[in-house]
Design brief:
mainly alpha
Length: 169
């Protein structure tokens, strides 16, 4: 961890390729998505070590990149891009929640939910609903918190750990 934040980032070549893909000048590849997923995994690890404030700037830049990709990706990779974009939006929503930035968190989680539904990812839908339930609780909307958490646990086919978390919440 450097004094300026997390050391995880895409290299200049990756950044240029993804920026070009975002404006239709580069064909997005599964390897590009794998690199973005690797950055997300490292950001999650670094958030555990350094806190939400340390990783939010990098996560927000990553969200901006995938938001452009969602708009420009060809159909053959669309589901994969939406899946990754939903994960990144969920993560940035979590970071904003942890920092008490509830309005920003709500917007990121709404976007994450939209992308997770379109990508057909019930596990991500459940996670986002659970996070939205937590956010509602923090905002004092107790009945909404309960309803969202209940909805998160409705699909018994999702990851058992998520179901257990929702039951506790």
């Amino acid at each position: 961890m450097s004094d300026t934040g997390p050391t995880v980032a895409l290299g200049p070549d990756d950044q240029a390729r993804l920026a070009a893909a975002g404006v239709g000048r580069h064909r997005l590849t599964p390897m590009d998505l794998e690199r973005l997923a690797t950055v997300l995994a490292e950001l999650r690890r670094q958030e555990d070590l350094a806190g939400a404030g340390a990783v939010l700037p990098v996560a927000s830049r990553q969200l901006a990149v995938v938001t452009r990709l969602v708009a420009t990706t060809p159909d053959c990779l669309r589901r994969e891009v939406l899946d990754l974009a939903g994960q990144i939006a969920q993560f940035t929503g979590w970071l904003h929640t942890a920092l008490g930035q509830h309005e920003r968190a709500a917007r990121r989680l709404d976007r994450a939910l939209e992308w997770a539904v379109v990508a057909g990812r019930p596990d991500l839908v459940a996670t986002v609903l659970s996070f939205k339930g937590n956010l509602a609780w923090l905002r004092g909307a107790v009945s909404l918190a309960g309803a969202l958490t209940e909805a998160a646990g409705r699909d018994q086919g999702i990851y058992p750990g998520q179901l257990a978390y929702d039951a506790l919440q």
